[in-house]
Amino acid sequence: MNRVSVRIDGVDYNIAGEKPEAEIVKVAKYIDNELKEIFSKAPSLTKINAAILMSVNVADKLFDARSENDQLKDKIEKLESSITNTSEDLEKEFDSVLEKLAQSDEMLAKVKSERDQLKLDLEERDSKIESISLAGSSASDPDIEKKIKSMQMQIKEMENKVAVAEAMATEFQNKAYNIQLNYEELKNSIK
């Protein structure tokens, strides 16, 4: 327990308390200043009446501070709740983007596989056409030409699908990266 000698309104007091000496002295100076202010405004008051008036003023300030403290606690609780909800929403959105990204990757792989198969089929058809041409057949088979054109159109369609899928995958990857950055910033700001 700390013992401190302080002067309030010209009278020395020995105060004992658990708080550090500096805090006890700070409180005593505050009380002394409050009493001086009351005496400066109402010099005719007795010391007891001035002390009571000062006690009422200090109690009023205490109640105001408690009320403000309670309001701040409520705001903090609401902010913490909001941060928790926002964090959960970000996690859900992040998971959703990752799932879409995985689906996009699967679709891209499927489209690439189909494109590669179409290229192989086209090469096989080209090879057949070349062997027919080399065999000396001067008449061209209209069905083969139609099939070749059809295959070429399918390859172009697949290439377009691959380009779209690659663009979607890139977009999802960028969104996932941005969400992850926002999530990390939010986590760091909560700490």
From TrEMBL:
It is found in: Cytoplasm. One of its GO terms (biological process) is septin ring assembly. InterPro entries: Bac_CellDiv_Activator (IPR053712), Cell_div_ZapA-like (IPR007838), Cell_div_ZapA-like_sf (IPR036192). Transmembrane segments: none annotated. Its main location: cytoplasm. It holds the Pfam family ZapA. GO terms for cellular component: cell division site; cell septum; cytosol. Residues 62-175 form a coiled coil. SUPFAM superfamilies: Cell division protein ZapA-like (SSF102829). Keywords: Cell cycle, Cell division, Coiled coil, Cytoplasm, Septation. Homodimer. Interacts with FtsZ. Activator of cell division through the inhibition of FtsZ GTPase activity, therefore promoting FtsZ assembly into bundles of protofilaments necessary for the formation of the division Z ring. It is recruited early at mid-cell but it is not essential for cell division. This is Cell division protein ZapA. It comes from Peptostreptococcus anaerobius 653-L. The lineage of its organism: Bacteria, Bacillati, Bacillota, Clostridia, Peptostreptococcales.
